# Entry
Amino acid sequence: MFERIQSFFQNLTHGGSSEDFAPDDLRVAIAALCFQVMEADGTVSNVERQRLRELLQEHYDLSSSKLDALMEAGREAGREAVDYYRFTTDIRRHLNEEQRVELVGVLWDIVYADGERNEMEDHVIWRVADLLGVSVRDRVLQRQQAATHVNVSEESDNRQDAV
# Structure
């Protein structure tokens, strides 16, 4: 199983649109986690996909074709992953605590892109934040900030905190 996963990541650098990104590229790991959050509720809306595109563009300033390649590489890596550990391990190695907290904020931005928060999305972010070493307090603060950006009522948002 490990060889199959390793082979997959090695193949990301050969052919197709993902040839610009090495298997261990931090940007691929981040994009993969974003896709896993988007897919947690069973549907990936166009607005979520567009928000991810905007966030990746803001952070990495890529050409349109490279941005497409990054999104495809992230989608494929996320689809092939058996868990979040591989991505979070790479991210922890490359990002400091403040940057990891910011990443959790990015994940919440994607969740709220469609104006809704789902318990499965909550669960994925909780697991990812835990693996990234982001505190519960910081995770909740990032969620509240993302909710504020889309004017989600705190009352309805706090009801889901019990989940």
Notes: The chain has one domain: 2-162. The chain has nine helices and no strands. Confidence is low (pLDDT under 50) at residues 12-18.
